[in-house]
Amino acid sequence: MLLDDFRRVTKACRCPVCDHPDWCMVSKDDPPSRAICQRVESKHRWGDAGWLHVLHDDGRTWVRTRKIIIPVRRPLADFSVYAAKCRDRVRPAQLERFAGALGVTTESLERLGIGWDGRNWSFPMSDAEGLVRGIRLRTRGGDKFAVTGSKQGLFIPGGLGNRNPLLITEGPTDTAAALDLRFDAVGRPSGRGGTHLVIEYVRRHKPGSVVGVADTDAVGRAGQGSGRDHGLLLP
To answer: Looking at the chain, which residues constitute the CATH 3.90.980 domain(s)?
Structure first.
């Protein structure tokens, strides 16, 4: 089974493993016999795509015989340039309306480098050193995906001080909410994503204490456990 045998999940066809409408994939057969989940681990890691889950046995024998490499079309050489162009396209009135709909301030969104690509809102994703390695996009309807060639990264706001604790949140909008509450906060890409980047960030910046703020669903709780395994995230 190759990656071409899978399709992206949608709101109408959510991931059968984590019940989210984005990032994951299911096989094209009906009903899907396999799922590749970005959030819930299994014994079979499928490259950067996630973990393979067998939903039902269709009588065929599946054997992993080679490493799967996900093709990347037209990768962007410098995502920081892309992020800057998107930031320049944001109009104050437009951002004010979006911030009001989310229930956060425009200031917190600007600290996260929010941009507009002409159709979608954009948020830069960075490594532990702050290098922009990808762009998260959010449609007007709330769907989330990434610019082609992006790698998952952290949502790191500008102007972080040395307040304790440092909150580790899920996604850019939760991070914006934490900033509005006057916390220092860094967002991970999903409930279980980016753990190694969080660890690297904490080791590099050495905050006095770290608290994980997760969604109350199963994926969020599992993500907290993965951080505690490294002694970094607190319940």
So the answer is: 79-228
CATH of domain 79-228: 3.90.980
- What is the pLDDT confidence band of residue 233, given thresholds at 50, 70 and 90? very low
Tokens 């480098």 correspond to what residue? 113
Res. 70 pLDDT band, cuts 50 70 90:
low
pTM of this prediction exceeds 0.70: no
Q: Among 6-10, 46-50, 72-76, name the one with the lowest average pLDDT.
A: 72-76
